[in-house]
Each structure stands twice: as C-alpha cells, then as structure tokens.
Design brief:
The chain is largely without helices or strands. It is built from no helices and two strands. Helices cover 0% and strands 11% of the residues. Strands 1-2 form a two-stranded antiparallel sheet.
Length: 71
Amino acid sequence: PVDITGSPHNGPNEVSWLADRDLTSYYCTIGDGNFVQYDFGEVVEIDQIAMACYSGNVRKQFFDVLVSDDV
C-alpha cells in the first residue's frame, strides 16, 4: 500500500504495523465503527485477504471489507 490510515489506536501501536509482516507487532483499537483504510495509489486486483489476530484462538473478531475503485 501507498498509505494506511485508521482509527485512533490503543497503546504504542502504529497503524503502519499492519503491513510490516511482523507477527510480534500489532495495531489495536477497541469498539465498533473503527476502521483501517489501505490506499494502493491505483486500481489493483485483490483476490484474497490474510490476517492474523492476537489471541485469535480465544477471541472473536468481526470485519466488514469495503472496496472502491476510486483512484
């Protein structure tokens, strides 16, 4: 991504850590209505989304994935 923005985070976490491919870093925000927006700078084809969630084996997470072809 060219840019990543998101809702205010909890703790020292940075939204840019979502794309660092380091499973020891993370981004955390609490509550409904929070968002993360990836800007790729151009229209790109996305055929899958992969993510790892902290304590994903004991917690439940829900996501809405919205896309746009705005350039």
